[in-house]
Amino acid sequence: MLHTGIEALFGRNRDGHRTRHIFHLRRHHHAQHEHKEEQDHLAKLFLTKPKLEKTILRGPIFAFTSMQGWRSTMEDCHKHLIPLDNHSWKLWSYFAIFDGHNGIDTARNASEQLGIHLINALNHMLEKQHDDTVYPDIPIHSYELDLQQLHAAIKKTYYDLDQDLRKVVKDESGCVCITCLIGPEKIYLINIGDSRAIIISNDGLVLAHTEDHKPDDPAERERIHEAGGKISKSTTGDVLRVENQLAMTRVLGDFAIDKHIVPPMADIVEYPRNLLASFIILACDGIWDVMTNEEVAQFVIHRASTNKLEEITSQLLDECIRRRGTDNMSVYIVKL
């Protein structure tokens, strides 16, 4: 039997993304064995009390914090590169969170490989743009790049990564990914799935944000149906799912599903690195499940003048636990 301390929790679980309350389960008039199956399933996904220990990192311009929380395993991974490299991209930096599901193999391998793929793709783009004449010690600025070529290079990176993951991932896992590429003049927010990034001003205004890739989005529904996929609810009270499995529509991994249906197709949000932009916040859906963009922005800004960044990231996860967040939680805050 699940511990009473997690009654009224299970707002969404990472595998199921369904609203589940213990008292709600008890009201259902299902057969007794179905109750037991449901509770056994929840017991595998969740702990009887949350793991509140945190991984906390601090760098010159960022802080990162993660927590396992109520989940039985930690399936989030992360990566940052400051600078992106020591050559052409020495003025650039990179941050990414990989939110795994059904295992951690995809998230772990993706976190290790994406930065490498991205640097290679950007260098290849430079060679094409400059007819193979690249001076590696001269730093690249955003205004020197062809926007269309840059976006194409970034998007291709995720497809190439997904092909490589197919060769090395040993479980049935997948992951979503939120990435931030920061250049001298521009910021690029890149997402696949339902992790999210926001750029905020010093008064807490959300200046830009990514859009989650979810089955309830009309454009995603149309794309999936055209690819031969289906969107449905597996049980009463469940959320919409792709192929009766995933509650997100774009992923890395998940190779048991036709990749035309759930491709690693990244969207890119571009924003100028100007005086308005003060912070970038990247987080997995463990945060966004219980806090809105605006709530997170205000939470950070209200503490920015009196707290260190690592204190703010830590306090943010505590707030999500207080709000009954039940998922793994990972967050970067980057100061511009």
TrEMBL record:
<dbReference type="InterPro" id="IPR036457">
    <property type="entry name" value="PPM-type-like_dom_sf"/>
</dbReference>
<dbReference type="InterPro" id="IPR015655">
    <property type="entry name" value="PP2C"/>
</dbReference>
<feature type="domain" description="PPM-type phosphatase">
    <location>
        <begin position="61"/>
        <end position="336"/>
    </location>
</feature>
<dbReference type="InterPro" id="IPR001932">
    <property type="entry name" value="PPM-type_phosphatase-like_dom"/>
</dbReference>
<protein>
    <recommendedName>
        <fullName>PPM-type phosphatase domain-containing protein</fullName>
    </recommendedName>
</protein>
<dbReference type="GO" id="GO:0004722">
    <property type="term" value="F:protein serine/threonine phosphatase activity"/>
</dbReference>
<dbReference type="Pfam" id="PF00481">
    <property type="entry name" value="PP2C"/>
</dbReference>
